[in-house]
Write a structure and sequence with these properties.
By secondary structure, the chain is of the alpha+beta class. The protein has a 6-stranded antiparallel sheet, sandwiched between helices. Strand 2 and strand 3 form a beta hairpin.
Length: about 120
C-alpha cells in the first residue's frame, strides 16, 4: 500500500529539483491551460493572482520504501500526480475528485489519500 509522506509547502523554486520545476509548470498548464513559467505559478510581489497556484504543496508517495509518485496539491481543490522523478502525469485532482485513467492506480492513490486525510 502507498503512503503520502514528506509534505512540504512550496513557496520558492529554490526548493525544487529541475524535474520538479517542470512538474510545477505542467501543474499550472493542467489547471488553467496556460503555459506560463514555473516562477509565475508561485506567489510573489509581481505575480498575477489568477495564475498563482495558491497553497502549493508537494508530497512524496512511497510504496515498499520506494518513492513511486510525486503529488502536487494547490488551489484547495486541485492537484497533479507524477511518476517520481519524471514529468509523466498519471493522475489529477479536480474539484477534490481523483481522476486517473488506470483503475488500479486510482484505487491505490485514492486509498493512500484517504489514509493521509487528503
Amino acid at each position: 500500500m502507498a503512503d503520502f509522506t514528506n509534505r512540504r509547502e512550496i513557496t520558492s523554486l529554490a526548493q525544487l529539483t529541475p524535474v520538479q520545476i517542470e512538474q510545477l509548470r505542467r501543474c499550472g498548464e493542467a489547471y488553467d491551460g496556460e503555459d506560463l513559467s514555473p516562477g509565475q505559478r508561485l506567489p510573489s510581489e509581481t505575480s498575477d493572482e489568477e495564475s498563482v497556484l495558491h497553497g502549493c504543496e508537494l508530497w512524496d508517495v512511497v510504496a515498499d520504501g520506494t518513492s513511486v509518485y510525486e503529488a502536487w496539491f494547490y488551489r484547495a481543490d486541485s492537484g497533479s500526480i507524477f511518476l517520481a522523478g519524471t514529468t509523466e502525469m498519471v493522475a489529477q485532482v479536480i474539484q477534490f475528485g481523483l481522476e486517473c485513467p488506470d483503475g488500479d492506480r486510482e484505487a491505490e492513490l485514492g486509498a493512500a489519500m484517504a489514509k493521509a486525510g487528503i
